[in-house]
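Students often ask why we bother predicting the structure of a whole assembly rather than each chain alone. The short answer is interfaces. A chain on its own may look different once its partners are present, and contacts between molecules only exist in the joint model. In this exercise we take two input lines together and write out one structure for the complete complex. Read the inputs first and try to guess which parts will touch.
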Amino acid sequence: MTSARLTLRLAPGRGWNWAALSGAIALAVIAVALLPAPPLLSTLLRWLPHLAQGFAMNVLISVLAVGLGTLGGIVLGGLELSPFAAIRRPTHWFVQTFRNAPLLVMVYFSSYIFPFEISIQHHYVAFPDWLKATLGLALPASAYVAEIVRGAVRSISTAQWQSAKALGFRRIQTLRWVILPQCVKRALPPWMNLYATITMGTTLASLVGVADLLNAANNASAAVHSTNFTIVVYLSILVWFFLYCYAISAVTKALERKYAFH
Amino acid sequence: MPDAILSQLIGAAKQAGFNYAFINDGYESGIWAEGLLTTLEIAGLTIPISLLVGVLLSAAITSRRNWLALPARSFIELTRNTPTLIQLYCAFLVLNMLISNALQGAEHNPLTPFAWVVGVLALHIGAFHAEAFRAGIEAVPGVTTEAALSLGFSQRAIFWRITLPLAFRFSLPSLVNNLVNLLKLTTLGSAIAVGEVTYASIMIWTQHDNVLELMILLLLFFSALAYGLARAGHWLENRLRIPGYDVG
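Now the answer. The structure tokens for the assembled complex follow.
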């Protein structure tokens, strides 16, 4: 018994899953306990499609923002590793500034600075709010990715470059077959952490009127206008995000253990 | 004299196409200065509270008592894996409403939006601190605590006087990182009408349409604060360094 407890404490990987599961169950119990009457549950089920639509928006924004951020961040990370100070320095300042920028400020910024429609040769194309929020999140995401890329490349020892050269690899071959495969392994866990962070940041878009999950919950709460339903709907979206982000973080931890180097 | 220089700077900015005229407007510059102060107040209050929360939570999760460790661990996982804005809404819209109802009317509720922001951010960042402390606690060599035990220290004394001071040193870089995140999260106050610097900026740019100008000020402000925190962290790290106990 004692030794079993000891393992639970000393092996964080297994202990964490266990504890988080118990947390999720506890939350589910709270949610059910807060459902004093069946009508509340059916009301929640009636709002479920609206909420699911909102969550789809969160997923869309997060995937696009991290995708764009990754492309931009790889370029920025490469520039940060440039041997020329004239390129390295400004990139470094750019990355530091946007790493320190609050996500909410970036979301507000992009939602106010971009026009609501763009004219392309007398054709007006709408510039929807969700796309503005995506761009607002993609900019800091690119700064985070730049740091991840830089860290990953830096973490590969110069001996690897030298041995590859000694084996007759050209520089581009070394990069392709020796350095980058190792970088991907090292950058993957922090990159997934970033994805989870940006996903949680997508709820900020609700503050500039994007129809996301939090916005849907606000709508539902206002329309139903009952204390019990308000409690249930906000706790539900909390659990909703928890399940999504916890799954990502569990995979990240598994990858970290798999790719750990000793 | 400083006023004249400021006016000249504002004039020069106007030449360059930047509208910083609000700085000369006593009312609007007052709103913005108050916003800056409110942000600093939120951060100043939340930093010590979050550290205290972090210490208590880390003590709980490293405890041998499961009834203490499991709820603390669940709380940390829940906090780390849910959006801070939803946490704030759950606290401000749900808990606050329940408290108001229990006290028969919002006018009897002593908790302001400001208090909720401080509370939620302290608990949120406290959970991240706890993880940093836990890693630090695990880095403390077992022989050190065993030596303390053999010298007759109680478990509590070992935690507060041996483990924690060493763990604090090991976890300092992560703590500073968390505090920078805390600074950035103070902007969430604007979501529940706390007049911090983002909220004040929105009030000004909706009047003058000078979003870019205020955004530059905001980015400079947050960069300066983050830089200051990082420098303070480095200074503390050097000051507290114990020879032979460097990590990394």
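Check your guess against this: Chain A touches chain B through 45 residues (CB under 8 Å).
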